[in-house]
Every structure is written in structure tokens, then in C-alpha cells.
Predict the 3D structure of the following.
Amino acid sequence: MKAFTLSLFLCLGIALHVHGLPAPWLVSNGGNDHSYEAFHAPNGITWAAAQADAVSRGGYLATMTSPAENTFVYGLISSDISYWYVTGSEAWGPWLGGLQPAGSAEPAGGWAWVTGEAFSYQNWAALQPNNNQNENRIQFTGHNAPGGAPTWNDLNDSAITYVRAYIVEFNAVPEPSSLVLGFSATALLVVSRCRKRWFGL
């Protein structure tokens, strides 16, 4: 019984860890009452496909309009290498909702957010944007990431090799009841799988 109880708590801990819930950035904490969620794309994903999925979920690729927002959103993926494509000291992170329309002056002209918000705050990495190979979308990047500075890189919108995730922004904070129901369903599923694996039940 003791072993089962311990295993049950381990399963619940796994459920808490693996179930991605939108992270609210509350006005009371200096935020905007929006929420954000990072999604994996282990086989790579184009910017257009990521944006289409974001819209289908009721959101859009996240827009970084202040240092505080940029830091908050980066914190969702900064410590988890599964959201990054890493080669040596280089690391490419999730897609964001920044784009450069065709015909813009290169490399820094015309950048905009998918929402039409002002592109006044910018946090490009050193020597970026550089329009290497027609780069026209924005992703998080960094040296020795995850865990580095929350800077941006410009990347071609179809360069799926270098993208393993994307971040969706929602213009609302989830209702507490939906969070509880979402977690409860996932917790039950994980516990059920743990029981089968560990106890053959």
C-alpha cells in the first residue's frame, strides 16, 4: 500500500509536469491579462503552420511588446531543451509572431507583429536581423541556450530544421474551472498509464 501511494504521488507529479497549461500573465503581476502556451513541434514546423495552429486554438503567435513580456514568455521555454534546436554553441528557439513583409528594406525594415501592435520594442541578438537566406520571421535564439538571454533571430519562414516549437498568445486568462478540469483529465490519464506500467492494473 505504501509503495502504491508513493507511486500515485509520483504519477501526479508527472501529470503536473507534462501537461502544458496556458500560463497567465496577470495585470496584478505587471502583465496584460493574456496567457501563453508553448507547443512542441519535434519534427520541425513552418512559421505559417505554427500561426495557423495558433489561430485554430483561438490565439496567435506570441508578440513581444515590452521587456517584461519578453522575459515572461521566454521563461516558459528557457530551461527546457526540448523547445530548442541546438548545434554546438548555437541554439534556435520557438517561433514568435513577428514577420517582415515582402519588399521591406533589408535587413531591419518593415518588421511587424501579427496583431498589428507597434513594433517599438526590439530585442535582437547581436548582428541580427541579418537576412541570411531571405529571413523574414522571428524566433527566440541564443548562444548556449536554453537559459541564455531572451533575444531574437530572423529566420526564413519555411526553415523547419531550426525550429522545434512555437508560442501561442491568448487574449484572456483561462477560467480556473477549465484549468482544473484540464489538469484533472490529464492526471487521470497519466495515473492510469502508471498503474498499468508499474502494477499491471
About this structure: DSSP finds four helices and nine strands in the chain. Strands lie at 23-25, 34-40, 60-61, 85-87, 90-99, 112-113, 137-143, 151-155, 165-170. Confidence is low (pLDDT under 50) at residues 1-19, 177-191, 193-199.
